[in-house]
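Hey, I was hoping to borrow your eyes for a little while. I've dropped the whole record in just underneath, so have a look:

——
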Amino acid sequence: MSEQIDQRHLKEILQIIETTENPEQLRDKLDDYHEYDIGAVLPQLTKEQRIKLVRSLDLPRLADIFEYLETEDAEDYLEELPDDLAARILSAMEVDDAVDFLKNTVSEKKESWLSHMNIDVRENLTKLAAYEEDTIASRMTTNFITVHTGSTVPEAMKQVVAQAATHDNISTIYAVNEKGIFAGAFSLKDLIIARKDTPLSDIIVTAYPSVYATEKISDVLSLIENYSEESIPVLSRDNKILGVVTASDVVEVVDDEMGDDYAKLGGLGEEEDLNEPVKESVRKRLPWLILLLFLGMVVSSVVSAYETVVARLTIIMAFQSMILDMSGNVGTQSLAVTIRVLMDENLQSSAKGKLLRKEMETGLINGLILGVIAFFGAGIYIVLAKHYTFAQAFLVSGCIGASLILAMFISSMVGTVVPMFFKKIGVDPAVASGPLITTITDLVGVVSYYSLAWIMLDRFTSM
């Protein structure tokens, strides 16, 4: 659980729990506080205080609190409770949250919790847990309401009221035909304001967006984001509703995808957490580091090819890191932009060409500006600190400035083309591009810088 919580609320909740013994009074006093805030207090309570709190609150409220907890924390607190009570709390949680917890928990009591659940709930959780982690069905919930397309408005309202007792996700209502096939959706607001004699078909949006259960999360993410609906149905292959993906699920998915992509940019298979064993972290990182070691040797061999230049013009070594850093920064910026754009599976070739031109123009303009700054800044520094003549100093700074322009221009192109290439051949661009870009841009910077230094060497030594 995040540490972002109002400390005033934290102290108030703690004081209420510590000073209130009557369960009904405790429940009434905590009604004014959000479940997230109550969950954030749990680590500061004793085991006895947590049990007192659990026995004071009703089941739906407890389920909401546990949905905000990290798996490890929820696991510890559930283990403090009788197995049947822990099972009831899990059963009352949103199905997708309960499934995530049961997939991730390593508690020895997991089987006992499942055995204490209602058989229908257990079968539902087991069915959802069977979906692969990378499919959208693994993020869906069965908390949704359906009505029959042949219903009148009053009949539809009765169906909604009847289901609302067990399903509180009622802002969007889904319509199914007599065979149970998805036929569209409409909002609760539209149902409320519709006249009695209005045909239900008049308010049903038949072209409502949907996704299939087995589709990959990465493939449907942009579709879900673009429609900005409260929830989107997840369908079986025969177009029956299996569940829905809610707005909060989408936020979670986006956050996970960003975390995974960020990890991949560092050459990791997936996002690491604090509790991951050292051996597993080494296993993820070492293969890419070995590859980069050999690529680094290539860069070093290129530098060694310019030993004559370095020996006769040692000052250029002082600015090598600046050239490499700037080319690396530009390449990484272009890479980040390109990875983000490539998330759109419907991206046209023309759009990719536009992105490449934009990144190259951006790299060139930034290179020109920074090249001019480096030309004057480095030139003045060399005159004042190294006591070179103005001609010699600005010849060296001219090499630095020109190298910056060339390296930043090429690096912006490389940072865009490389992920596009990997995407084209079916390799995840985030995994393949991240570890390579820095080394490639180092190579670009080294070749650009030392080649220009070699070209100007004769003129410098004749001064």
Summary: The chain has a mean pLDDT of 83. The longest helix spans residues 349-386. The first strand starts at residue 145 and ends at 148.
